[in-house]
Design goal:
Elements: H1 6-20, E1 27-30, E2 39-42, E3 45-50, H2 52-56, H3 63-84, E4 89-93, H4 99-102, E5 112-116, H5 130-136, E6 140-143, H6 146-155, E7 163-165, H7 202-211
Length: 212
């Protein structure tokens, strides 16, 4: 936050609930847009932002400047780990930012839990790439559905027994089912909330409704 998306909402709710249960939580995120502060507290959750995207995709800048930024951010993440001393690092794996976690594993030794918010492609889980590296050293891997777990097992060396399926939670009181006034027959109703793009599966919802 304040960027809004599935992973961002998931992270915010998870951090809020951890703190509500008496744990300490620190969110490390990208500083984008660049006007956001490096340090902030959102709903009591401390957030530390680094210029991850700028370092990993420097564009037309001097490559040496990009390398210097990578070194600076790596040192900053290492210092943060040593200061906070987490019992576990939880990685939302959706892009290349976990590179800085891998580069600072020795700064503070603790288990890593990886949650994959999307499906893997075969080329994204190759033996020598970032996705494979972060999964290989993870103590636990979390998938958001049975289908996602099967996908991870297909393209990595993780077995289904090594993957926990935890569906993203929603605030139940915000989604109470109700009967539409004036409806004479109890026909099923499906509400789809999401972008109309293939990976969101609106077509699957339509096909499922036709079978009910």
């Amino acid at each position: 936050l304040p960027s809004v998306g599935g992973a961002e909402i998931f992270t915010a709710r998870l951090a809020d609930l951890l703190i509500a249960r008496g744990h300490e939580a620190l969110v490390v995120s990208t500083r984008f847009p660049s006007h956001l502060s490096e340090d902030e507290a959102i709903n009591g959750v401390p957030v530390r932002r680094f210029a991850f995207l700028e370092a990993l995709a420097p564009g037309g800048k001097d490559p040496r400047a990009g390398l210097r930024l990578v070194r600076e951010i790596t040192a900053g993440v290492a210092d943060l780990k040593r200061a906070f001393c987490p019992d576990v690092v939880h990685v939302n794996l959706s892009d290349a930012r976990p590179l800085f976690h891998l580069r600072t594993l020795d700064a503070h030794l603790c288990p890593t839990v990886v949650t994959l918010q999307s499906a893997l492609l075969q080329h994204s889980a190759g033996a020598e790439n970032l996705t494979a590296s972060i999964l290989r050293q993870a103590a636990r891997v979390v998938a958001v559905s049975d289908a996602a777990a099967a996908n991870i097992a297909e393209f990595t060396d993780k077995t289904l027994a090594q993957i926990d399926v935890i569906a993203p939670g929603i605030p139940a009181d915000e989604f109470l089912p109700r009967q539409t006034p004036g409806r004479s027959a109890p026909n099923p109703i499906i509400a789809f909330i999401g972008r109309l793009v293939p990976e969101k599966g609106a077509d699957v919802a339509i096909e499922a409704l036709a079978q009910l």
